[in-house]
Design a protein that fits this description.
Blueprint lengths: L3 E2 H7 L3 E3 L5 E2 L1 E2 L9 E4 L3 H4 L9 E5 L9 E4 L2 H16 L4 E2 L4 E2 L4 E2 L4 E2 L4 E2 L4 E2 L4 E2 L4 E2 L4 E2 L4 E2 L4 E2 L4 E2 L4 E2 L4 E4 L4 E4 L2 E4 L5 E4 L4 E2 L4 E3 L5 E4 L4 E2 L4 E2 L4 E2 L4 E2 L4 E2 L4 E2 L4 E2 L4 E2 L4 E2 L4 E2 L4 E2 L8 E3 L4 E2 H10 L3 H22 L1
Parallel strand pairs: 4-5, 5-6, 6-7, 8-11, 9-12, 10-13, 11-14, 12-15, 13-16, 14-17, 15-18, 16-19, 17-20, 18-21, 19-24, 20-25, 21-26, 24-27, 26-29, 27-30, 28-31, 29-32, 30-33, 31-34, 32-35, 33-36, 34-37, 35-38, 37-39
Antiparallel strand pairs: 1-3, 2-7, 22-23, 39-40
Length: 343
């Protein structure tokens, strides 16, 4: 594992170092777990009070910190700086290059500079892998697939024919990209499969969680735009467009030909019906069922979807329904007696 001197780490986050600049740091750790070769951070009063007693090799603290510490790096935002250095150490761990002898590489495959191809990876004919891409064990890359520069593809990922993947894309284990959509037409009491000849396009800086399934377009493309982040077990059906910098949380399902705007947030298990348009900067609550298009900047929850404030009122009323039902019955009986008495 690569180590870094404190002087280098401080320089990378534009921090001010107090302590031995040559002191070597091997990795990062949470405050309570950090040992003498680890870097951690403290940015709240409770943790800052404990900095002098920390066993960490070094602690990132705010510029305003005036307390003691063995080795400190002061900066404007300790948390952001810590995560930036976490990426640095991760990159060092993933820096090995070369093609494993068990990998199978087809004809006319173009491999960029300093790529890493892991054990039992299969790359089909005419594929293109960009510079510094890392493809881990048991991954399948289909015919004429393009993977951009600095991509990171974890084990057991399947990327099927003609998929287009941009630069700096991260794909976690078990994800399948480019499978056929769920398309059938009835014919003489049977279901005839609709051919799916489209592609999947994934733009730059996308991160896909584990066990996602993204179907190719029936015709045209399924399009995941720049900066989209998905959680685990998300399903995106054929010809869906997901707008830039949108978040899809675990087990979201989006039916075919739906369009999701940019900077939207779809919470866990939300379901979107097909051919709908969800606007820009929309927030959809967990387990919501969206059955109609939603305008920009809306916040909705529930099944079917409704404005979030209305959904909150509904949730408060639901537990009272049995009591309200009994009250209505009693009122109906009293009204019936009054009407009979008047007769």
């Amino acid at each position: 594992m690569k180590t870094y001197p404190l002087a280098v780490l401080a320089e990378k986050i534009a921090g001010t170092l107090s302590g031995d600049p040559a002191y070597q740091i091997r990795g990062i750790a949470a405050f309570d777990d950090a040992g003498p070769d680890a870097l951690t951070f403290a940015d709240g009063p409770a943790y800052l009070a404990r900095v002098p007693e920390s066993d960490a090799g070094a602690v990132i603290v705010p510029d305003t910190y005036t307390g003691e510490g063995r080795r400190l790096i002061r900066c404007a935002s300790p948390r952001a700086a810590f995560y930036a250095l976490a990426e640095l150490f991760q990159e060092a761990d993933l820096s090995a290059t070369g093609i494993h002898p068990t990998a199978v590489v087809g004809s006319n495959v173009r491999l960029g500079h300093a790529v890493s191809i892991g054990p039992y990876v299969t790359i089909d004919d005419d594929a293109e892998i960009g510079d510094h891409a890392r493809i881990m064990a048991h991954t399948t890359i289909g015919r004429s697939v393009r993977v951009g520069e600095n991509g990171l593809i974890y084990p057991h990922v399947t990327i099927l024919d003609q998929t287009r993947i941009g630069d700096r894309v991260i794909i976690h284990a078990g994800t399948v990209i480019g499978s056929d959509g769920f398309g059938f037409v009835p014919e003489n009491d049977r279901w005839r499969k609709i051919p799916h000849t489209g592609i999947v396009q994934i733009d730059d800086d996308v991160e896909l969680g584990a066990a996602n399934t993204i179907d190719r377009g029936t015709f045209g493309r399924t399009w995941i735009q720049e900066g989209v982040k998905t959680d685990n077990q998300v399903h995106i059906a054929h010809n869906v467009t997901v707008g830039a910098h949108t978040l899809l949380v675990a087990q979201v399902g989006i039916a075919g030909s739906a369009t999701i705007g940019h900077h939207a947030i779809l919470a866990g298990k939300a379901g979107i019906a097909g051919h709908l348009k969800v606007g820009d900067r929309v927030t959809i609550g967990p387990m919501a069922g969206v059955t109609q298009s939603i305008p920009d900047h809306s916040v909705v929850s529930g099944v079917p979807e409704m404005p979030h404030p209305l959904w909150l009122k509904v949730q408060r009323i639901l537990p009272r329904l049995p009591m309200l039902r009994n009250q209505v019955r009693d009122l109906a009986k009293r009204l019936d007696r009054l009407e009979k008495g008047n007769n």
